[in-house]
Automatic annotation (TrEMBL), chain A:
It comes from Candidatus Caldatribacterium californiense. Transmembrane segments: none annotated. Gene3D superfamilies: P-loop containing nucleotide triphosphate hydrolases (3.40.50.300). Pfam families: ABC_tran. Keywords: ATP-binding, Nucleotide-binding, Transport. Residues 6-241 form the ABC transporter domain. This is Metal ABC transporter ATP-binding protein. PROSITE patterns: ABC_TRANSPORTER_1, ABC_TRANSPORTER_2.
Length: 266, 268
């Protein structure tokens, strides 16, 4: 068996007194592509932030590349992180190329200037997401989907061994989802370990090696076809969720409270 | 005798240009990181610092410098608490430090203090020591801005991502706040406590209307900062108007002109 890149055992986390994660255990091995799904507020982003060392675990064991996340040393630069797009000021005065370069700032080191190899890495990353031709365009002049691909390029610019993505396709229009997941598969073949938070259960099930279902705790982590069977999704999203199957692909629809009105697709 | 022949005018123009330039450079990060209100709060804290200096027998520029530094780092530290927001803290400190100054003036019966000069600026009061302080602080500031430019960009653009990639975001945030406090105290010497934050915000906000990248914005803000400081001083001299107010009004006029003539205003 390949060695584990992410090991989480009996993890607990709370914001002040509000428990967010309880007894979470998850192992992701080298070269694996794991999708993390769950309803809003399930703790998915929190788990990612703990893996990145941005939040401290209250209890339990967390290891990334075999080390605690807050003490990764240079291994930290082998992690590519794709945060949610909503997190960014779209009018920040920076070109796409410079934006992608910021991904390498930690790797370059404090007080040092980016060199030619850094720019080469930026261009390669932009090429991978098909944005190289927009390198000198301002971040604010890009479409939502292009900005999201810019975030992915920024994560790729460090040649990551581990890629952590938080809803990386929300602004990418559906016809480009496929090329994004194809890119992930290509990275996986190169040995990159991938953990992706997604609401896109149907699409991601076709690409991921396994799906982990999180709602405060991980209550299943199995092969996609076992997860999307129906009962598992119902257990995750609650009885209020209904699943429309188009072929083998389930689409989640959650019945909301009456005053919110009707059916809202996730 | 020409304007340049006047010793106070020479010092005022020199100080105005140096301080205008430094404020403009730091101001770009202040505007982008939304620290404008913090800048205004820090400058008002200088009033408490000046009065404390008189009470304790310390040079008022030194006391206000130390006081503003402590206040700004205090705000930055407390703002990390989940239940306190930075603008709330600034709102409190803004008033309480001014109150401290007013209270001490009343209780200790300080006399012979040019209050109006401290509040609205008095270019006749700019000394050689002020100039020296501006030069030394200016050198330190340029050194930090040059050396840590990319770190300042990251803590402004994406502090969380920066932290995830191993950059000491907290340390650089403190450093940025300390730099803001330093230039604001310098600005209080030129345009006064009440108007100081304008030197920080106006040139940067003006430049950001018209520039695409941060280095361009810094260059344009610097030019604007120097131009309004010099232009304002000469206008004030010929109109026999208060210098601080003239500089700030000139800066506001330039900002409005650029804002209105920009086809797609981006930020302010």
């Amino acid at each position: 068996m390949t060695r584990p890149v992410i090991e989480v055992e009996h993890l607990y986390f709370a914001y002040e007194d509000v428990p967010v994660l309880e007894d979470v255990s998850l192992t992701v091995c080298e070269g694996e592509f794991v999708a993390l799904i769950g309803p809003n507020g399930a703790g998915k982003t929190t788990l990612l932030k703990i893996l990145l060392g941005l939040l401290p675990a209250r209890r339990g064991k967390v290891r990334v590349f075999g080390r605690p996340p807050e003490d990764l040393g240079p291994l930290r630069h082998r992690i590519g992180y794709v945060p949610q797009l909503s997190h960014f000021d779209p009018h920040f005065p920076i070109t796409l190329g410079e934006f992608v370069l910021t991904g390498r700032y930690g790797l370059i080191g404090v007080g040092k200037r980016p060199g030619r190899s850094d720019w080469e890495a930026v261009e390669k990353a932009l090429e991978a997401v098909h944005l190289l031709h927009l390198k000198d365009r301002l971040f604010g002049e890009l479409s939502g989907g292009e900005r999201q691909r810019a975030l992915i390029a920024r994560a790729l610019s460090v040649h990551p061994k581990l890629l952590l993505c938080d809803e990386p396709t929300t602004a990418v229009d559906p016809k480009n989802h496929e090329s994004f997941y194809e890119l992930l598969l290509r990275l996986k073949r190169e040995g990159v370990t991938i953990l992706v938070i997604s609401h896109d259960v149907g699409v991601i099930a076709q690409y991921a090696d396994s799906i982990a279902c999180l709602n405060r705790t991980i209550f299943c982590h199995r092969r996609p076809e076992e997860v999307i069977s129906g009962e598992m999704l119902e257990a995750l999203y609650g009885k209020e969720a209904a699943f429309f199957h188009h072929g083998d692909i389930p689409h989640i629809v959650v019945r909301r409270e009456k005053n919110e009105g009707g059916l809202g697709a996730l | 005798m020409s304007v340049f022949g006047l010793a106070f005018m020479q010092r005022a123009v020199l100080a105005g240009c140096i301080v205008g330039a430094l404020c403009a450079l730091v101001g770009v990060f202040v505007v982008l990181k939304r620290l404008s209100f913090m800048g205004a709060g820090i400058s008002h804290a200088a009033f408490g610092g000046v009065v404390l200096g008189y009470v304790l027998g310390i040079h008022p520029v030194v006391s206000s410098f130390v006081f503003c530094l402590l206040v700004s780092l205090g705000i930055a530290t407390l703002a990390k608490h989940r239940r306190l927001k930075e603008d709330t803290l600034v709102g409190i400190v803004f008033a309480s430090t001014m109150a401290l100054g007013a209270f001490l003036i009343g209780v200790v019966k300080i006399r012979n203090v040019d209050l109006f000069g401290y509040l609205f600026g008095n270019i006749l009061a700019i000394t050689r020591e002020d100039l020296l302080l501006a030069l030394v602080l200016g050198g330190v500031l340029l050194f930090f801005l040059f050396l840590f430019y990319k770190e300042f960009v990251v803590i402004t653009l994406d502090p969380e991502g920066g932290k995830a990639s191993g950059i000491s975001v907290e340390a650089f945030s403190y450093l940025l706040v300390a730099l803001v406090a330093s230039v604001v105290v310098l600005a209080t010497r030129v345009v006064g406590i009440v108007l100081a934050s304008a030197l920080l915000v106006l040139p940067a906000a003006t430049a950001l209307q018209r520039t695409r990248t941060i280095p361009q914005a810094m260059l344009l803000a610097l030019l604007d900062g120097v131009a309004i400081a010099m232009g304002g001083l000469f206008l004030a001299y010929f109109l026999d108007a208060p210098a601080g107010a003239t500089i700030v009004l000139l800066g506001t006029g330039v900002f409005l002109g650029v804002f209105i003539s920009s086809s797609s205003p981006r930020r302010g």
